[in-house]
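User: Just a sanity check before I run the rest of the batch. Below are the structure tokens for the first item. I only need the designed sequence back.
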């Protein structure tokens, strides 16, 4: 019988670790604040915003929502970003994606102050994740995978980990974080040959492809831990992960569900980053 690796207890433990820190900040006259910048009404961006709002509310983080139309251009978005960059009452900034195609995302992400980059999208944040020192934060989803594995006592040292997906917000930074913890990582992508066999050979499989039902019985074995990071819409309009959950879950040692798995932890880690940013900026 496999164990379901729920995100809620992991998020709860992180939340509890923040209570005293937020109280200390508040008694020093500082309420941690996250600015959310969103263009348009993309369902994915709205979903992430709702879940970030819930996590921040639970912890006592103030939110400043900046909603811009889908017709927003680079200059206008940069102006708004500059405002929150320079606002001493804003400690963290989350630029929700997707952004309109006309926006020069590199310029926008490049303009974000690394000390306020709580979702780890700037080059200095990535450099910190890869090198292990400097300014910024690791991308929340990559860190959430590690928090899940630690919470459930999954040994990383010497473990073989297969990651499906090599994006800069999940797969690649996660490969660095795992490697720093002495795991042996195989980073797979859409051109990887014999993907099911590589995945089946791993002790831990993390799927971040964004493809519903990509991971099926051919990818797994009975001793395996599976983290499903994908957030997809199934044919019946429901949210689902990358793993064919009903077929795979009875075959493995442990598996995280979607919804209710890694995503729950991701937004609580975002909240922790805002608290850490506020502490650093308030020099506590
Ligand atoms: P992305 O930038 O589109 O990257 C997807 C990666 O998966 C790419 O590296 C791609 O390979 C690889 N891939 C796609 N189809 C594949 C296939 N059939 N076989 C093997 N590899 C395949 O996506 P992302 O931004 O990393 O997000 C990935 C998923 O995670 C999405 O569903 C997203 O919604 C979800 N997500 C969840 C959270 C959370 O907290 N739970 C947070 C962020 C994102 P190539 O590089 O070769 O194209």
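Assistant: Here's the designed sequence for the first item:
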């Amino acid at each position: 019988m496999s164990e379901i690796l729920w995100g809620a207890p992991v998020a709860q433990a992180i939340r509890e670790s923040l209570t005293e820190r937020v109280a200390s900040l508040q008694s020093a006259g500082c309420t941690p604040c996250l600015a959310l910048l969103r263009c348009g009404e993309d369902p994915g961006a709205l979903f992430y915003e709702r879940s970030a709002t819930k996590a921040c509310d639970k912890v006592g983080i103030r939110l400043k929502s900046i909603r811009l139309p889908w017709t927003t251009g680079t200059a206008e978005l940069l102006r708004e970003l500059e405002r929150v960059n320079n606002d001493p009452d804003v400690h963290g900034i989350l630029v929700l994606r997707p952004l309109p195609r006309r926006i020069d995302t590199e310029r926008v992400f490049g303009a974000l102050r690394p000390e306020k980059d709580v979702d780890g999208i700037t080059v200095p944040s990535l450099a910190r994740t890869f090198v292990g020192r400097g300014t910024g934060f690791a991308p929340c989803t990559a860190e959430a995978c590690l928090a899940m594995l630690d919470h459930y006592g999954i040994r990383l040292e010497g473990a073989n980990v297969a990651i499906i997906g090599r994006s800069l917000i999940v797969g690649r930074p996660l490969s660095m974080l795992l490697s720093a913890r002495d795991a042996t990582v195989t980073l797979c992508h859409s051109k990887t040959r014999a993907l099911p066999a590589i995945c089946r050979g791993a002790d831990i499989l993390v799927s971040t492809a964004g493809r519903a039902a990509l991971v099926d019985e051919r990818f797994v074995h009975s001793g395996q831990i599976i983290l499903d990071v994908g957030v997809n819409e199934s044919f019946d309009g429901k949210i689902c992960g990358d793993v064919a959950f009903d077929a795979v879950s009875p075959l493995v040692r442990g598996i995280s569900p979607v919804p209710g798995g890694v995503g729950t932890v991701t937004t609580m880690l975002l909240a922790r980053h805002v608290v850490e940013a506020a502490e650093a900026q308030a020099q506590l």
